[in-house]
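S., here's the first fold you wanted:
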Amino acid sequence: MQFNLAGIAAMLLITAFGTGLAYAAAKKALTPIRTFSHTVSTITENDLDIPIQEHAGSSSETELLYRSFNTMMERLNRSFSMQKKFFGKGSARAKKSTCNDHHKCTGGKVGAVVC
């Protein structure tokens, strides 16, 4: 078998074109995932109620991922809000109760022994 220079050049050109085309397709397909990952990494406990916007032109799988993540964040935000309310009310009551009991036990005297 004899390879000529034109055949080898054509083969290299086709390989380079195919590789470039595959790279471009993979980059386009992964852009929504990259955007999602970046956005998720910026979320803090103070902004759990901000939904992640779906990327234009994303596939149905990534749209499902965005919706599922936003639903999970809504649930977490509700849970954290309920915990804050519960502990906020509970700690205020406990503090008031402790202060009242301390005042009763010490007769309001500073430095008295707590009963």
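And the second, which I think is the more interesting of the pair:
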Amino acid sequence: MNKVIAILLVGMLSVAATAEIFIYEGKYEGIQVGVSSKNQVVNLKGKPIRKSVVLSDETFHYDGFQIRFDRNTVSTISIVNPEYSDPNGISVGFSQIVLEAVLKSEVVKDTLVDKNKGIIYWVENGVVSKIVIAYKLKLNG
């Protein structure tokens, strides 16, 4: 029994060791992930429509996008504004088929991640429903 637990533990540690953390510099309307502060966001975009807190992460909600903070710095920007076109030319409302063709990858569990640019696409009913610009992504090899 102890050998089985030891083998499982070693296997779990080797899988965890293959994950890498990637850092990105994405921007949206002058706000940069990993750089912009709460004060800078308010100065650029004005007072948020509302604020919410989950655990220690605060989110500012604006019309068409949300900004999540890790402490005082922007960690992600979630965009639902269909007028925004990201660096890949993708917008909310694009079909899953177009998204997969542009990124040459397939949607898995309703998401597709552009590992080169730190962009996460959420897909609902075959259509891009949200574009998330991330500062950090933990990705498996």
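Why I say that: The longest strand covers residues 127-134. Confidence is low (pLDDT under 50) at residues 1-16.

Talk tomorrow,
H.
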